[in-house]
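From the pipeline queue, job 12 of 40. The input is one protein chain; the requested action is below.

Action: predict structure.
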Amino acid sequence: MNRSVANKAAIVSLDDVSKAFANGTVALDDLRLEIAEGEFLSLLGPSGCGKSTALRIIAGLAEPTGGRVDWPQERPGQREHDLSFVFQEPTLMPWASVFENVRLPLKLSRVPKTEARDRIFDALEMVGLGQFSDSYPRELSGGMKMRVSIARALVTRPKVLLMDEPFAALDEITRFKLNNDLISLWQSFGLTVVFVTHSVFESVFLSQRVAVMSSRPGRVVDEIAIDASHVRDEAFRTSSEYAALCRKVSSALHEAMAAERVA
């Protein structure tokens, strides 16, 4: 684990987690992972390796077939966790304004609108959309829609933010900008972030640690600390340190995939 988070308490851990579906597909097997409080962790692996399934299990949106998920800082038997989930698609309500889309989780939690208002505008300001509260999804670019989705996740003020390839469908320039903004949000609010991606470059830029997963059935086969001394900015993206870390992570990913083919 990265030195900067090695001494922090675990906020969630997966112990020997497996997941088999009714059609016989085994998505995960012997998945072991510990996530420290305040850590930015990326799950990296080929398509279909079970990254999204692992994230859904952490979120409680799917039950493991075997093994266990522990939240050691919470009381025994607690069913709901202080987390939010950002999906691959923004999943916005097209008939509702940006304000009402961000309000949705507070509305479902029966937070009064008068109390919710400031929290909604705070969340929109966090993602740079403070002037777009009355806009509708059809009036927004792809990147702006994803910002609304992130604001909706942040409005509940979670401790843990789970993100399932949220920037995969965006153009490179927009993706870089949102990567930069996500780093700022993580640093400013002390979030624990678990980020699913199949991009080596994205995982190295964002993370303190990259967990490399094997092909299906997915399990963690390598963990690489990103002890980059640079600030995560454009200078880091063009640095020799970043290039070296990308090569290291890429090599680990190729080794994991090659091992599966041999097996």
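Job complete. Residues 91-158 form one domain.
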